[in-house]
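[Q] Does anyone have a clean structure-token version of this?
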Amino acid sequence: MAFAALSALPACAGGGTQGPTPPAPGDGTPPAEQRTAFASTYSPLSSRPTVIRGATVMTAAGPTMPNADVLMVDGRIEAVGVSLDAPAGAVEVDGAGKWVTPGIIDTHSHMGVYAAPGDNSLSDGNESTAPNTAEVWAEHSVWTQDPQFALALAGGVTTFHVLPGSANLFGGRGVTLRNVASRTMQGMKFPGAPYTLKMACGENPKRVYGNRGRSPATRMGNVAGYRSAWIAAADYKRRRDQWIADGADPADEPRRDLQNETLAGVLAGDIRIQNHCYRGDEMAVMLDIAEEFGYGIASFHHAVEAYKVRDRLAETGTCASMWADWWGFKLESYDGIRANIALVEEAGACAILHTDDSGRIQRMNVDAAVALAAGIEAGIDLDRDDAIRWITINPARALGIEDEVGSLEEGKRADVVVWSGDPFSIYSEAERVFLDGALVYDRADPSVQPLSDFMLGVLPEGVTP
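[A] Here you go.
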């Protein structure tokens, strides 16, 4: 098992409205040839009916509810309200003085593909061998024994998105994972979550290949590379579509091409673009390319200048996955401001806080508090209900899983975090974490604290992280 109980290097660094919904990715069904390839085998852990009583509940779907209850039955949210009736024999959790939120979601992680310890043998996130490596899938590098999963769970993270790095124009597919114990990555794959495609603009690809005397070596070379790839993918898609329209005779099937298969999936609306991009002008160019070839961008990542194009983000329904206060480590990241997330929120766009870091993912609630404070200091009308959406329902929307997770609403998966106090206080801790209604982390009970097989061989007996 990857965890004996239940379940640092940033690869991509080298008012009250939730904003419009990002472009829909079709019905989320992959093309026929991919439906059985590496399919999710995730199965929720068994759970008992559980009610958390008398807590301050942040649903991420409405205003904070004081002295409220959360009822979980059969792995789903049964109800949120006051003085709820619970089934006979339900587990009762005293929420007095506690706060309850949805499970935290990170849209940008490299856990599992840049696993701990940070050794070259576990550096599997960047296939930096060609500008276009859309054929690779991050999930095929995920090491399920990565100790970082457990540390993120202790910070309330129940779902996270694993991406390839940003050396390439097209880095490959990303995968959305549940933070549970599993021997295989398929056992962690979020059922029905759309695939994503990592793209990168700016300094990284032009530096990586320019230093090798190859194209792209400039930003104009980057753009030419994107457009050439989309032209080839559109041609591939036309040939495959025509073959299907003609009856899909196996004898006449066009040769499969993994690289173009991924790009064609984007053009069909089944695969979502997650785009590493720092500068506002380059985000505008990427939106122009998306318009030229008829696809949408689910989210720009890092996006330190998102505030400069926040109106366009709102108009196009494009999310921005941003840091709270990380900037200035290279020239394209230099023009960052602390009110970035708040300004995107104020414009009515989809604002998201992400980490791209195995340390910060353990404290996303604190980073959200930093971004909230910066926005208030800048005179923007914000409150905790805005901030909780930045780490729950908005990332769920960017990943295409908002119907299942991201808020405490009837029928959704019961991913729930019980905090010792206000989650936006540096002094508060995640005390209990439920995933699909099952208790997967309990700070007070070492038997319900995840520990990977790898760490069993490293830590002294009886010692937990």
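[Q] Thanks! Anything notable?
[A] The chain has a mean pLDDT of 92.
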